[in-house]
Specification:
The chain is built from seven helices and no strands. The chain has about 160 residues and is an all-alpha fold.
């Protein structure tokens, strides 16, 4: 690809790339930085590239945006991950939190990481040293246990 071809295609595809990066990052300035970095990388490869540039540019931009998000996300060790105390918790939430406290430690940790810290399965797997499948299975078992205990407590209350 010639320099003029690259400039013309890069200028045409730039708004689409910024839009895509903004969807991932939520910030226009970060999106601009990611797109600039993507175009720089494509510029360095321009002699091996063919027209149209858009597909390769979209992939490079997406990967750089994801890398940017990974660098931005703070990671904590398992010892530092604790559920934050919330002010004014309603009785149902208190009951559910009490049930969660009775679960085995790994189930508690995974349930809290997923639902209270909103972490992704892959991140939880990495943090716990498990596979994603094992995390999903443990999470499913923890949810089932919480649901069963909650329902049994409701039935006991109704019979009283």
């Amino acid at each position: 690809m010639t320099t003029d071809d690259f400039k013309r295609e890069a200028q045409a595809v730039r708004p689409q790339l910024i839009s895509q990066a903004r969807r991932y990052l939520g910030d226009t300035d970060d999106a601009e930085d990611v797109v600039q970095d993507a175009l720089l990388r494509l510029w360095q490869m321009r002699e091996q590239l063919n027209s149209p540039l858009v597909r390769m540019a979209v992939v490079v931009t997406r990967n750089l945006a994801i890398d940017h998000l990974r660098r931005r996300r703070p990671y904590a060790s398992l010892e530092l991950v604790v559920a934050e105390e919330e002010p004014q918790v309603d009785p149902r939430t208190e009951r559910i939190l009490a049930i969660i406290d009775t679960l085995p430690p790994l189930q508690q940790t995974i349930l809290r990481l997923r639902h209270m810290e909103s972490m992704e399965m892959a991140d939880i797997a990495e943090l716990t040293g498990s596979s994603e499948v094992a995390v999903r299975q443990t999470l499913s078992r923890a949810r089932k246990a919480v649901r069963e205990k909650y329902v049994s407590l409701k039935l006991v209350e109704m019979n009283q």
